[in-house]
Design a protein that fits this description.
14 helices, mainly alpha, Na+/H+ antiporter like fold, 76% helix
Amino acid sequence: MEPFAFIIALLLIGMLLQKAPAPADFSKSLNFFVIYVSLPATVLLQVPKISFDLSALGVVLVPWLLLPIMAAIVIAMTRNHPLHVRAALLLVIPLGNTSFVGIPIVHSLLGEEAIPYVLMYDQFGTFLMLSLYGSAVIARYESGVFHARLIVKKLLLFPPFLILLFALGYGEMPPEMRPYLEVLASTLVPLALVSVGYSLRFGGEIDYPLFAKALGLKLLVMPMIAFGVLFALGSEPLALKTAVLESGMPSMITAGALAIASGFAPALSAALVGYGIIIALVTLPLIVYLMERLL
């Protein structure tokens, strides 16, 4: 329980820093270091540990299987709402915070041996979906223009993804490099969580019935479907638990930011990101407890 308390403490530190005279780009600076240094170091250390079997394949497939299901539910759920509300939910429900929040929470609840599966889910699932599906949603509901070449270029130049491909091809890092990579990788959890806490924003006029439905869909229905799929596939228990937890992560901050920047129900988008993180601190341990009883 101590690691989980540490997660909460780091989030609170970030929230308290909102009151400090921090630089205007403080959160962006933290995110920049995490994306370009901490996350690549973690990838180099953890990805070579992945055993490519049916369980690993299931971890990669689950977010892509969930995507059309969630999109269809959102479209049905918002049939009587404005299109900008539908666009917001299409962004913030399928896309979870599977790295900045996912890595430290899974590490706390399942241990370090689960991190390779987290990286598989995040890089081959959530990140690709943000780049491809997220861009398509914005193009459809905002500008009406889809720039496929720019999306592919952004994907191929994203450092963690390039490092992921390198780690898959190269394998284990040389022993003399590992201590230095471990130091860099150890910065991911504190910096990411402080950044998340600093970015949390609440308030604004919210359609609370729709908010409650969306939050339940994100934090409860998605992991339930993921559990059913992976259980049917006969996935190894650790892979199953990791992918189910990842599918139940709160909405991705980047997806919320994109929704707000595009004018897609800003108050609702911010609430799903902000309150979602707080509520997920309760739902995720509960999900682990239920899986322990069922498996």
